What does this fold into?
Amino acid sequence: MNAGQPDILDLIHESVISRDAAGHILFWNAASELLYGWPRGEALGRDAHELLKTRHEVPIAELEAVLLAEGRWEGELGRVAASGAELVLDVRWAVERDAAGGLVRIIETARDITDRKAAEDALRLSEYRYRNMFDAMAVGFWEIDFNGVGAMLMPLREQGVTDLRAYLLEHRQFTRRTMRAARVLDINAKGLEMFGASREQIVGNHIADYWPEASESVFIEALTATMEKRPHLITETTLRTPSGGEIDVLFTVSWSAESRKRGVVLLGVIDIGDRNRAVSAMAASELKYRNLFHHMPISLWQLSAKGIVPLLAELRAQGVEDLPAYMEANPDFLTKAMDVIIVEEVNGLTVEMFGGADKADFVGPITRFWRDNPDTIRRSLAARFSGKDSHVEETKVRGLDGRCIDILFASAFPSALADLGITIVGAVDLAERNRAQDELQKVQAEFAHAARISMLGEFTASIAHEVNQPLAAIVTNGEAGLRWLDREVPDVGEAQALTGRIVADARRAAAIIKRIRSMAEHRAPERAPLSLNEVIAESLAFMRHEIQAHRVTVDLDLAPGLPLALGDRTQLQQVVVNLAMNALQAMDRGEPGSRILAIRTIAGSAGLVRVIVEDTGPGVAADSLERLFDSFFSTRETGMGMGLPICRSILEAHGGAIKAENREQGGARFSISLPIQA
Amino acid sequence: MPARPLIAIVEDDESLRPALLGLVRSLGYQGEGFDSAEAFLAAGAQYRAACLVTDLQLPGIGGLELKAHLDEAGCALPVIAITARTEAALDARALAAGALCLLRKPFEADALIVCIARALDS
It folds into this structure.
């Protein structure tokens, strides 16, 4: 073997290295480049242990001493690859000496057993898991002579077969023959019971009959493990009994150092039918879940949370506590998050509701459904991040056909589901409900309008009065103006001044008409921020004449800086006019001097503004208080009994309330509350 | 009776009152305006005026009440009532109360001129 010679050793899968007495690398084959990540050019001449950071429980110098004394050493070493990856290696060292006994070089072969170590750790864990089962259940033991099998496998090595597993998987006939070469030396009583067979039927015979074709891969695995000298193998498989039945078994292969020398393998076989029955129950429950998932009359989505969970964990590790604030500062995060939340499955109703052709159309990132309205996902993520089990809200989502769909969105991520890496999202179509709500709102608006028209009917005299005032001024000023102009020397200055007044009065008349028209108009109610103080002032302007005609004094106490409420101006004016009108009529019987209509506004607590309307009338009879807001209930002979119920329905549609009571000092008090603009 | 008779006007509408004052002045009369019956009485205008033009609906004492008050006080000042109200019964009530005439707003200037002329003739 010459240093630097690209020879046959490069074809070997194992790492082969040679070094001189001082430890400098003389030879470095292709497998070594692959294993350690150091190219040959960089490895040659370097100190092997230094380059590869060789580690062992015993100091390396002592290992070297053993090597020199005995000519060889083998064992496990820890090393570090160029990439920094930790390696566990099964290493053999051999000393090559010249005729004079002088050290020529040390040859090393090494096999990477890092993965095997990890697998062994996993196995140890699973062994622990199954220990209880071992203890609880009787195990059937088979002692099997593998010498015949070994004899069949040896030539394969010589033929250059390196991957035994692949070879066996490919050559099933050969695999079958190896089964026939494996002879049962012994079997315990439990083993016989399990297989329902007599000792004579089994001992001395081969094992091929007990391995159904479907279980061949497990046999191949066992065989490979044997050849790779793994300490044990545990797997599940199905074996066939002599009577032709099949049993599910937990199958363990183990070799003691002693049995390995004899070519004997110990098979432990445990009937896991019970366990599998439990698994079947789970499968049944899984089936139930699937049935539920696919046939529930709401849209259900199964999302994979496998991408988002680590993303959130990473943020937490970075010390992020306030996810909404973080997303605010890092707008890209939400997009990134949506891209890793993957739709795995949807049910049939989802396909229908979201305008798809097939369930498969939905599979993929959720991004395309939420691009226009990512805030729902933002809030859902925030809920998950803050440890909540679920998030529910009303929102809009984009269907596959491009439609915008109103839904009630509910995402659930309890820990039980999180363990499975899934999130379940339910969506209920709100179109139907919203349609009903719109319809109700329309009817309510229509009633309110009808009540307004009826109210305006009661106001016709007032309206005429209000309009006639400016008209009278206009006509009078106009005629006076004409007179000034008709003089022998027309007084243009006077006429000009009067014309200015005419214009002002015409505007005043127009404003009155406009106010009345907005009351009479039928249009959809709208929600706009408005000052209740203004609403009250406008309502009173509308009623100026009525108030005067009823000889009532108005006592206004409007809170300065009152928070704005959200509402429909006309409808709220209607409420105020209605209450004020009731108050005027209630006070008709009292003395003119004592007729006081008091209206106050108050910035209430809990995000409410309040309007209090009080009068000095006789108050409301105790038995009427309860029914005051019932439709068609009126304490007046001419009343329609529609005013107060409409007031209540208007306020309730605004998220507010109204209540009536009697003042201690006499008279009625109506209290309105309305939510302020958020 | 002075050369230019004084026409007193009681009207709370801030537009109409100056308009009426302007009209009577353009006709060659003197004019004096009040925004309430109380203000008219407080000014003692009933003793100076040749004619009173008053709105029916006023804050405080109304037009017909004012007429009754004047009657009680033995004051024969002729009263022309004006109103923006529309009730038909008002004419009868105004005349019964002793008003010379009732003019419905908006009224023609000539109608007022005729009424004032009648009042001054009486």
